Amino acid sequence: MTAATPDLGQQVAVVTGGTGGMGQVIAAGLAQAGAHVIVIARDPARADALRTLIGASAASRLEVIAADLSRRADVVAATQLIVNRHQQIHILVNNAGAHFPGHRVSVDGVEMHVALDYLAAYGLMTRLDTPLRRGRARIVNVASDTLNDTRQVTIAGRPRPADLDLTEADSLADVNPATGFVPFQAYARAKLMTVTAGYALARTLAADGVTVNALHPGIVATGIIDDLVPAPLRPFRTLIRRSLLTPAQGAATALRLATDPSLAGVTGRYFNRDLETTTPAVSHDPGTQRRLCELSEHHFAGPRR
Ligand SMILES: NC(=O)c1ccc[n+]([C@@H]2O[C@H](COP(=O)([O-])OP(=O)(O)OC[C@H]3O[C@@H](n4cnc5c(N)ncnc54)[C@H](OP(=O)(O)O)[C@@H]3O)[C@@H](O)[C@H]2O)c1
């Protein structure tokens, strides 16, 4: 955190993916600034490294909740636990994410990028509605600029933005199907879904002072990078990692959006690191936003009986 970071004493923050590269730095930064930090982690034992990073005194403000965020039941249970324990939430950082190199389906029948990189964030933003509104929270969604360009190697040519067409979708199980599956595009589409739903929720939450913004952190040397490096470049992985941002540099944008006083009230925006920028037109389309939120609500309503 920077010298300008406000005192976050009395604030409650929820961070997903707090056991990973950037998430650790985000969770530690918020705790060291005085916040009570709830980390949702699929393997709570991995939070031990986070405790060490935070330091003994701030670690007493760390609360770890176990959940596999690709599972609907776990998202529902974790959010219910938080609602039962906390009246207000002031910061929510949806940071957990992964890139899956092949087509995989979650226990709920949804493609894994949709389940983890989108639905976990949607579930937290909506299932924590009451404490988020009470805390006039800042919601920060860690997306990826792959949504603006799905090319893995960008030496020449024009950007190819991610697409999202829900006109034929009866449920989110229809998104990122096995036929024609391209992992990088599927990851980018899930991030585009997070930004798209975020724009819609930014509008509905604005009346209660809740803000929703999304970001690309830069290309950062974390666990996810090993999956994202294209096969021909894998022999140069160590060299590539050295040229990337550190997790602390990558985490800076999320921490800024979560805490910078100059960004109070700023909502419905997308930042590529420090630069506020645009996302594909479909993410601003009211029909797509509405259908996405409907399908997401159906997902959390559970299987039809
Ligand atoms: N690194 C980059 O260049 C880059 C660029 C653009 C966007 N991003 C985004 O930045 C965010 C943070 O990623 P990172 O780069 O810090 O990667 P990372 O080190 O791989 O961290 C990912 C985090 O997500 C957690 N996670 C994965 N699957 C989960 C599940 N099923 N349930 C709960 N938690 C789960 C991981 O938990 P475990 O510790 O248990 O594995 C880990 O804490 C992601 O959303 C990623 O898409 C990264």
CATH topology: Rossmann fold
Summing up helix and strand content along with how strands pair, one would put the structural category as: alpha/beta
**What's the name of the CATH homologous superfamily?**
NAD(P)-binding Rossmann-like Domain
Query: Are there runs of 5+ residues with pLDDT below 50, and where?
Result: none
Organism: Actinoplanes awajinensis subsp. mycoplanecinus
InterPro entries: NAD(P)-bd_dom_sf, SDR_fam
Keywords: Oxidoreductase
GO molecular function: oxidoreductase activity
Description:
One of its GO terms (molecular function) is oxidoreductase activity. Keywords: Oxidoreductase. The protein is α/β, with parallel strands linked by helices and 305 residues long. It has one domain (12-300): 3-Layer(aba) Sandwich (Rossmann fold), CATH 3.40.50.720. Helices cover 41% and strands 12% of the residues. The chain has eleven helices and eight strands. Strands 3-2-1-4-5-6-7-8 form an eight-stranded mixed beta sheet, with helices on both faces. A hairpin with a 2-residue loop joins β7 (269-272) and β8 (275-277). α7 packs across α11 (286-301). The protein is globular. NADP nicotinamide-adenine-dinucleotide phosphate binds next to α1 and α8.
